[in-house]
Amino acid sequence: MSLTLKLLILLLLVLRSHHVDSGSVVKFLPGFEGPLPFELETGYIGLGEEEEVQLFYYFIKSEKNPQEDPLLIWLTGGPGCSSLFALLFENGPLALKFEVYNGSLPSLVSTSYSWTKMANIIFLDQPVGGGFSYSKTPLANKVSDTGEVKIIHEFLQKWLSKHPEFFSNPFYVAGDSYSGMIVPPLVQEISKGNYLCCKPLINLQGYILGNPITDIESERNYYIPYANGMALISDELYESMKRICKENYENVDSRNTECLKLTEIYHKCTDKLNIYHILLPDCDMTSPDCFLYKYLLLSKWANDERVREVLLVNKGSIGEWRRCNYDIIPYNYDIKSTVPYHKNNSINGFRSLIYSGDHDMVVPFMATQAWIRSLNYSIIDDWRPWMVNDQIAGYTRTYANKMTFATVKGGGHTAEYKPNETFIMFQRWISGQPL
């Protein structure tokens, strides 16, 4: 056999082992010392007739038993926030080291709370314009909720076709914040596809949502009762607002001047709060004393050319990487409420875990409890504390539709505020144990 032929065969074997058609194995990351202690694959899946949409993903294999452990897809909210945020701040095996930026590349460290300890996870950048995902051509139609549901379903079918070893793994859809508008209809879409049209079949078992936006208009009406319950406004102001605004705080009639005056007082009491976690200061992320400073470090890391090269981000595909890109092409918010999808998913018997950080004011836990109650399922395990190391970590309740609701005590809008407790909650739920 000639040397040239030997080299050609060797090259083909290397390419095959690295899944070049869908993604490539990453063994080292800039900022992390030594080889990665887990299996990471990154890449794009092309979608649409001409594969003009290129969705970027990070895939991390379970550190326990990847052949049998559940497979999750994680969708970060926004719409337009990168899944790298979840990977490095919420539930991934790496985190950014909190240190003052000095011009050098921020460091990465291992975490103890990664959901990949017992699950395979695809962290997906979506929609186009979020993270490293992009379109080769200007999109003819606006990006929309319903459009994203179909695109992500197509992504999953293509990804699984290129990773057939995961066909039989139990599959879950997960996410937080605005993903509350995408995950329930996506679960329904996958379920329908399994019956009607689509191969490969996806072994769908359920879904997980943290502080999910579900019905924006009704949820905003819970800001005032939440503010009262957390002692942010007086009982007298709350009672007056209830009576005079007729418990409709979002669409106040301009003729109701008394309600408008009370609303002004409410805003004076709450406008300077950090609504993502009301106990934390509302400050600029450029201050090293601020909780949000790590977002600056993330931006420095993700925009480093060495990082992009190692992650195999296509050169020239996007400009500056942003944690949340709210300037994506006009977005059509065409799903107004996902309660009907939750109902349908319950009828179809899918498990669900819905959790709320109890110091989040963006989606108050009271609003989440209200739509869960509206499903009208009986309670099979009533309100009780769930414990971590003999301490109360939150409260939980389970319903007859296989839906578990849990609060995370001291948590905010995303799992980053209480990652250890959220990890333990996930670990128990995914393995079928009571919280």
Q: What is the global morphology?
A: globular
CATH topology: Rossmann fold
Low-pLDDT sequence parts:
5-21
Provide mean pLDDT, rounded: 90
CATH architecture: 3-Layer(aba) Sandwich
Beta strand %: 15-25%
Structural class: alpha/beta
CATH class: Alpha Beta
Q: How many strands appear in the DSSP assignment?
A: 16
Distance between the first and last residues' Cα: 61 Å
Helix fraction, binned, reads 25-40%
Q: Please work out how many helical segments DSSP would assign.
A: 13
Under CATH, the homologous superfamily reads Alpha/Beta hydrolase fold, catalytic domain
Largest sheet: 12 strands, mixed
Give me the strand/helix succession: HEEEEHEEEEEHEHEHHHHHHEHEHEEEH
Radius of gyration: 23 Å
How would you sum up this structure, described in words?
The chain has one domain (20-215, 292-430): Rossmann fold, CATH 3.40.50.1820. The strands form 3 sheets. Strands 1, 2, 3, 4, 7, 8, 10, 11, 13, 14, 15 and 16 form a 12-stranded mixed beta sheet that branches. It has a two-stranded antiparallel sheet with strand order 5-6. A two-stranded parallel sheet has the order 9-12. The model is unreliable at 5-21 (pLDDT under 50). Helix 3 (145-162) packs across helix 4 and helix 7 (235-244) packs antiparallel against helix 8 (257-270). It is an alpha/beta fold and 435 residues long. Helix content is 32%, strand content 20%. GO terms for molecular function: serine-type carboxypeptidase activity; sinapoyltransferase activity. Keywords: Disulfide bond, Glycoprotein, Secreted, Signal. Residues 1-22 form the signal peptide. Belongs to the peptidase S10 family.
